[in-house]
Design brief:
By secondary structure, this protein is an alpha+beta fold. The protein is built from 7 helices and 19 strands. It folds into 3 domains: about 55 residues, no CATH class; about 80 residues, Glutaredoxin; about 110 residues, no CATH class. The termini are far apart.
Length: about 300
């Protein structure tokens, strides 16, 4: 392990924010931060072990204990708490026979609580491996675990109601981002510019919310944090908030009709969220706390629209 850690430290030690980059790569390789690895980082970087542990414990993305194959995050923020969020976490604890913050003996699941996942209007919210489950009730916990074991990525984009088309624009210049000439998932793609390391080129994202399909000019290594830019005004699309799962910056895009979609900038992290609070409903053109119910021909209907 030591020789591998030494190479990682040498690779990032002189970078701005080098400690975070070092720890990110170590966790990517081992799924957590082993004590031996942190001691090696301290020795090779010249930083105190206290400082290294300070960074490792400050960011929620980092873990000092091995995590399970699947990470379950249950929101206990105010909105989810009053909507029976504590009941949901207790049911997960009962079914998995662990407490929040623990991992099952077979290393299949790690269960944790978070303070907010950015989708308050649709709480209680549960996120498993970046997949959002909204309006969760106690009886759905067993169904969620069943879906996870079957494979959350094995979805049918044509019938799965967690997947729906969105039309997005730049939050800076308001220019539309849909590219009708280049399709992803058989829908117009979201056209952006991506930069990472020394690479800078085009990237096309799926416009289906819930799909993680992407095409890019350059192959992007897993766990790489990518900088996204508007192809029209060239402003960087970066949110003030960080991903609740991996702490990378979120990438904001405005929805036509009101609301905002945010995706994680870390390649491989599947976290995404949609904020419809105080948007303008696409159907009734009325400003309110908008809650979509079900898609109909590609258009989601607001609960106040009849």
């Amino acid at each position: 392990m030591n020789s591998t850690i030494e190479k990682i430290v040498k690779k990032h030690n002189n970078e701005l924010g080098g400690v975070i980059a070092i720890l990110e790569e170590i966790q990517s390789k081992y799924s957590y931060l082993p004590e031996e690895a942190l001691r090696t980082v301290s020795q090779q970087s010249g930083r105190s072990l206290v400082d290294i542990y300070g960074v490792a414990t400050f960011y929620k993305y980092f873990s000092l204990e091995p995590r399970g194959e699947h990470l379950i995050s249950v929101c206990l923020g105010t909105a989810c708490h009053v909507r029976q969020g504590p009941v949901i976490i207790k049911e997960f604890e009962r079914q998995l026979d662990i407490r929040a913050g623990e991992t099952t003996k077979n290393k299949e699941f790690t269960l944790e609580t978070v303070n907010c996942l950015g989708a308050c209007a649709r709480g209680p919210i549960v996120v498993v491996d970046g997949h959002y489950f909204s309006n969760v009730n106690k009886s759905q916990v067993a169904q969620i675990l069943k879906k996870v074991r079957a494979g959350l990525d094995a979805i049918d984009l044509k019938v799965d109601q967690r997947v729906f088309p969105v039309k997005l624009r730049c939050p800076h210049c308001n220019h539309g981002l849909l590219d009708t000439n280049n399709l992803v998932d058989d829908y117009p793609s979201i056209r952006l510019t991506a930069a990472f390391g020394s690479k800078h080129g085009w990237i096309r994202l799926s416009s289906l919310y819930g799909s993680h399909s992407v095409k890019s000019e350059y192959e992007i290594p897993i766990d790489t944090v990518v900088h996204f830019f508007c192809p029209h005004c060239h402003a960087e699309l970066v949110s003030a908030s960080s991903c609740p799962l991996c702490n990378a910056p979120m990438v904001p895009m405005i929805m036509y009709g009101g609301g905002m979609v945010q995706i994680c900038s870390r390649h491989g992290c599947k976290n995404h969220m949609i904020d419809l609070i105080k948007g303008i409903c696409i159907n009734c053109d009325n400003r309110h706390t908008c809650k979509f119910i079900k898609p109909n021909g590609g258009v989601w209907h607001c609960e106040e629209y009849t």
